[in-house]
Amino acid sequence: MSEFTHLGSQLVNLCSVLLLLSSFAIVAQRRLSACVDLFALQSFFLATTAALVAFLTGHRHIYLAAALTVVIKVIVLPRILRKVIERLNVSRELVMNINIPAGLLICGGLVVVAFFITQPIIPLGYLLTRDSLAIALAIILIGFFTMIARKKAVTQMVGFLVMENGVFLGTTAAAYGMPLIVELGVFFDVLVAGLIAGIYTHRLQDAFDSVDTSELTALKE
Amino acid sequence: MTALLTVLLACYLLGGLLPLCTSRPQLQNTLAHGGAAAGGLTGIVLGLVGLFAAQPLTLSVPSNIPFLTFALRLDPLAAFFVLTISLAGLAASIYAQGYVSEYADRASIGVVGSLLNGFVLSMTLVVLADNGFFFLILWEVMSLLSYVLVVTEHERPGVREAGLFYLIMTHVGTAFIILTFVIFSQEAGSFSFDDFRHPDQRLPDGLRSIAFFTALIGFGAKAGIVPLHVWLPYAHPAAPAHISALMSGVMIKTAVYALIRVYFDFLEGVFPWWWGFTVLSIGAVSALLGVMYALMEHDLKSLLAFHSVENIGIILLGIGAGMIFHAYGLHELAALGLLAGLYHTINHAMFKALLFLGAGAVQFATHTRDIEEYGGLLRRMPWTGLFFLVGAVSIAALPPTNGFVSEWLVFQSLILSVQLPTLLLKLMLPIAAAILALTGALALVCFAKAFGMAFLAQPRSGHARQAVEVPVSMRVGMGILAGSCVLLGLAPMLVVPLLDRVTGPLTGVAISDKVLALDGWVVAPVTVEFSSISTPVLAALLVGAGLLGLLIARRLGKGVQARYTRTWGCGLPLTPRMEYTATGFVQPIKQVFETVYQPTVKLEREFLEQSKYFLRHQRVEFHTEPLFETYLYRPVVRKLLAVAERLRVIQVGSLHLYLTYIFVTLVLLLLWAG
Q: Which residues from B are below 8 Å from A217, CB to CB?
């Protein structure tokens, strides 16, 4: 392995770790607007990672994916989410299903699980980004966990997007990204999902006077 | 074939789409049913071409979807069913032209007509399909379209439940069909029927037997074999009459087609004798129970629906006997059994469709389906009465009609079991023949009831009194079928060679010259010495005997003054209340077969306060127990509901809990895999 690619690999790992840290920060954050900001930051790190990989490998289409990440996940989606928060007039999440210290501990456990699971796979890879796979899986699990732990629809949306970031990192790490057409499709899906979730949150507010998805139990029968 | 098929597709598709483009009911009616009729005519030609073609005609369009090719194959077996379906479809669509006005205020004529086109087209294509995947798609389309047609009158009580019941049963069946095809595709390596026929290596015996049972259950659910018949008496009567006619007359035959296709074509007719015996036993039970339940029905269309169970049983008796003979290498007898089954298939399609159309015509005129409210319709609706009588005589298998010919052939193939080498079968097949005989007798009682109560004597209700003959198009529709019934009965010499072309490739022998002795004037079960019969001669004898009687009466009665007067009623004026009721008519049979019916009688009496020797009024209720529903289906449904109730614990409606389920499953799976 040459010096250059070794350095590149280190940089990719660094960026991945920043992504992971930002997901921890999201788990630890009570303020909704801060959660959204952290998500934007995470997406920025993701875009950086993608650009780095594109630079190191010469796969041009990853640049495009990185640019789209910046546009959609750093700019558009956070804006939509902020609008939702403003309109709903909720700034903090006071009650959670799992409190923050316990949540952080569980997330730590999830990272261990992710590394444990990917351990036998990673040596098989030959890409310089292969180490990021464990981190990607950890981010997916943490995003999922956020959706379970939080009650407000907005943070659940953020959890979903964090999962998506994890998936994106995973594909970049494992295969230098998916074919461009698939990536475009995924971006479109995420955008639409964001819009739908925004509308859905409004409807939730109208119907239950709250964006707490626990209220949905009332729909049963 | 390509040209004919294109015309056929065009007819049905135009008939299906054009009516939706206009909003004038009259135009919709003409377009939809015109399209269906044209399609039916083309289908008849296509069927005949296929029957006479030297080689099976194939047509294949590849697709991008794995395993799926839009392959069609017109071999004699498929051609025969195309012919049957198209003939019934033609009659039904002509009939519908007049009949749908009954539904004008309840459903859109355009939509019903359009669905009719789709339904007939899907049935036609089902029997032509030559790829498992394509077949399943068409089968599903056929099932779903018929479901939608069943619930045409969804606002009437019971119709939606009937539809749902049908939907569930047909999908249970489809699940088993999918299983069958998956088993075949294991060895064949694809879903092409051609590969099913010639797999790389033969399936192991165990797997073949599983395929046998899954096919029997899967297609049996559609055919309505006992005990999978329970949906049939609910769903078939719920649909408009021309749809009932198609469902009962031909849709259930697609299952017969598929069974023959699977057993004789895919499994190459190589099977142990007990397969045939299973089919035969199911046929015997279905035939007997079908007619017995039909007897107790006083809803004309439900009665007919139960008779479909009976007739499917008779068809399976023929096919089952054929399978047994085939397993023992008695190929000529195998061909005879199969031929008898197929003959009954087209016969049943004709007379059952005719009877359903007749029932629809009666309902059209009286607006009720309860036999007890009919009476005296023959005077008011002579044409309908005549056609219904033709159908009733045929289904009751009275000579010289078509039902008689095919049931006689089934009989003969059962009795010829004396040629079988095993004692068990030598004993069992005549028992099946005895059951068939009982079935025939009960069917006769049933149609004596149906025709007698509906058409003879005095009207029992205001509805019946005000009945008038139905429009011409409905009469033409019924007339086509009645004509087919008579033709199929009187001209076996035309039908048997056609059927022989179907059974020949399946069993390996041609038997038409043996079945038709003396240039076709006599039908014999392969061996003339054993027994033989001739319907044209029988018909001539019957007519001759009638004429002779008339002649003698004229001769002897010369000089005797004929006197026309009312029936003597002991000095009282005759009222409809003096008439035999349908319930009373079958009371003896209810008594005899008490174990099957388990009748309950509820008697409510209210006396005058002053003395209990004077009744104020009394009320009697009869109920028969639907055995299979009570003892088979209800326990299963109850168990299912109990399990579902227990599973509800995990279904609390909390989003977070659901997410947790997914999350835990994901992590566990990852850990398990890692």
A: 652-654
